[in-house]
Amino acid sequence: MKQNIIIGGYQGSASLHTKSIEYFISEISNNFVIDFNMDVTTNGDKASSLIEKTQHEEIHVSYLLSSYFEKILPEIKILDLPYLFNNRNEAYNFLKSDFSSYIDGKLKDKNLKLLGFWDNGIRHISSKIKLIQTLSDCKGQVIRTTPSPLHIEIFKNLGFVPKPLDVRDFKIAIEKNDIDAQENPLTNYWNFGIYKKQEFVTLTSHIFGFCLFVINNDYFDKLTNLNKKFLIKKSKEVTDYQRKLAIDEDDILIKKLKSENIKIQTINKKSLKDFKSVTHVFHDSYFQTYPDMKQYIKRNK
């Protein structure tokens, strides 16, 4: 008899995360009866509710941006330190280290199990006012940030006026044109329709974002050994699939955005240096609080 499995997400059908879940579903459908709630925000729930729903087994499997896990796993903030990685390869190599096992162990204490780190894209800044060419261009602009306290402080340091919003409320704010700026990977900038409201995109690459792909730990423990091994195998495969989609999509989206006459510019070297200088304080603060986490960075260098 097939096991029931409920999967939840927070993005629409065009999202590469949704496409990855659909690929995952196609790979496990012979072994499981699947119920997929594509986007919980369309039901009025916050995206952040996916964590609690998965912990309480209302949902068995879900994905969500790492910063939303800060409350139950503060060490995960390492992935949101600005300019921690210079490129995707550095980030991927870091995730291959013992760091993943460490995070998995911490999540088990919260009744979750890590299935993989999904590529949530390189984060950039868009604005309805101007390109961000210098720190002075940030000053006074109301920017939507995630609810992460770290994200809020980062953008406050840059000169923005942060407005933290869950994805659900962010989509509404974009529709109403209530904010001056926002920061997201290009995939969200496109799929959330942000480009229709904010025509200036500065490629700041300030964070290489990741989603945690997780499963309820009690549910996983009750599976047969065969199904456990099967799910782990398929989770690794879908993670590889998802990352390839993420890499390919960036080039595709740049072309799409240019066809929509969006003004796109890579941050210049001087401004990049200034951005790194202003935000490095968050590295110092994090590693003072969590000195043991330095070992994972050192091993990755």
Which structural class do the helices and strands define? alpha/beta
Question: What order do the SSEs take from the amino end to the carboxyl end, as H and E?
Answer: EHEHEHHEEHEHEHEHHEHHH
Q: What is the CATH topology assignment?
A: D-Maltodextrin-Binding Protein, domain 2
What would the average pLDDT be, to the nearest integer? 96
Uncertain ranges: none
CATH class: Alpha Beta
Q: What is the domain tally? A: 1
Strand content: 15-25%
Q: What CATH architecture label applies?
A: 3-Layer(aba) Sandwich
Oligomer: single chain
Strands, total number: 9
Structure description:
The protein is α/β, with parallel strands linked by helices. It has one domain: D-Maltodextrin-Binding Protein, domain 2 (3-Layer(aba) Sandwich), CATH 3.40.190. Helix content is 44%, strand content 22%. It contains twelve helices and nine strands. The protein has helices spanning 16-28, 49-55, 88-96, 99-108, 149-157, 167-176, 186-191, 217-222, 225-259, 269-279, 281-289, 294-300, and strands at 3-8, 32-37, 61-65, 112-127, 142-145, 161-164, 181-185, 200-216, 263-266. Strands 1, 2, 3, 4, 5, 6, 7, 8 and 9 form a nine-stranded mixed sheet that branches. Strand 5 (142-145), helix 5 (149-157) and strand 6 form a beta-alpha-beta unit. Helix 1 packs antiparallel against helix 9. The longest helix has 35 residues, at 225-259. It is globular and about 60 Å long. 41% of the residues are buried.
Descriptive keywords:
single chain, 301 residues, alpha/beta, D-Maltodextrin-Binding Protein, domain 2, 44% helix
